What we know:
CATH topology of the largest domain: GMP Synthetase, Chain A, domain 3
Number of domains: 2
Largest sheet: 3 strands, antiparallel
Order of helices and strands: HEEEHEHEHHEE
Structural class: alpha+beta
Amino acid sequence: MSQETVKEALQKTIEAITKNPKCSNVVFRAETELVEDVRCTLKVRDFSPMSVDEPADLGGGNAAMNPVELVLGALGTCQEIMYAAYASVMGIKLSKVKVDVKGYLDLKGLFAMDETVPPGFRKICYETTIESPADAETLKKLVAMVESHCPVYDTLTRAVEVTGAVSINGSKAVACAA
């Protein structure tokens, strides 16, 4: 897909939302299921199922990425996609966009060894490399747009309502709240 094709697709979607603002609300879905030990499958849209596993030292078979690695990958790839999308709309040529993401997690929280330690990441850091013939001022505007409009970055940095329910043996047993 060329930069022009991306621009046309995005402009068409923006135009549709302008004509009918209600069509801006979308729902993304994922289905997961535990397969064996700590290995799971992840199914999204019509794609082949993807395995999710843990490294051996966390009880897995090291057959695939683990969930926290998927979060890091989601942040990096979302940033890259946003760079491509906004660059196409802004008419900026990009030669390279690469994001290196690191997440810092204390396993004492995961293993309930210290109630003061959260089970998730304490800190996530990323470094983005951009190569482009565009001038520095134009690229700074692009960076500002991506940093302020990346959905995964926003989801990770803003309190988001998360709710759920648990069914046990076919009966709804527990409603989960954030």
